[in-house]
Specification:
Blueprint lengths: L10 H6 L4 H9 L16 H18 L6 H39 L6 H5 L1 H47 L2 H4 L4 H11 L3 H7 L2 H20 L3 H68 L1
Amino acid sequence: MQKSPVEDANCLSRFFFWWTAPLLRKGFRKKLELTDVYKAPSSDLADNLSERLEREWDREVASAKNKPRLMRALARCFIGPFALFGFLLYLGEATKTVQPQLLGRIIASFDTVSAQERSQGYFLALGLCLLFTARFLLLQPAIFGLHHLGMQIRIAIFSLIYKKTLKLSSRVLDKISTGQLVSLMSAHLNKLDESLGLAHFVWISPLQCILCMGLIWELIEVNSLCALAALAVLIIIQACLSQKMEPLRVKRARLNSRRLALTSEIVENIHSVKGIWMGGGDGDNYQEHQAG
């Protein structure tokens, strides 16, 4: 397999996804084959990611006064790119907030009474186009980077769980079913890709509300407090609904984990029974049943 071009790509190539151009051109000319697929970058390999996280986890265990927390070890490993992509995401969302005001001023420029707005209409239209372009250029790398970061965290935790299971004694492994591990890896850790892309909205949303209130205050002044009150009521209602739904989400997660655990154990036992049956001299009968 070929080396991934993303490893040798510069910052601009990664930001604008230029490193994907050779693969896209090849896919446009012919059908892609397995030999056209690149190797995984060294930064995405499970060995490298697990070593980074394991090193930080050992530091956390050694320095923690109380119970060590995995979140602190993850923060020391991935806080840099997480903060950078969050800043890009905020800039992209901030441009979305300003767009309606510019659009309103462009519409007002068609009024024959307002000559000043009419003279600025072209500049306002140019500014609106630039905002759309900036939003597109900022959001795509930010969203892609956050999902890619979530994938890296998931791979690192997968590797740590796998290494931990290899170090456990047989007495401890007897208390842990394979279904529990499958449920942990498939049902819970797979949510990292989705949750990491939405985590920044915890602080972006209040800042957006403040920015919106400032823009509304400029238009209608004191009457904007009515909009703020309506927004506060909606937030309270949504918080109450979320609190009511929390027990249902927990119950659904437990049932889903139990379902995955039972399914995995059933499949594992079916394979065991199949192996015992074939090893007991009934392999010929099994092949006859398959042929039939």
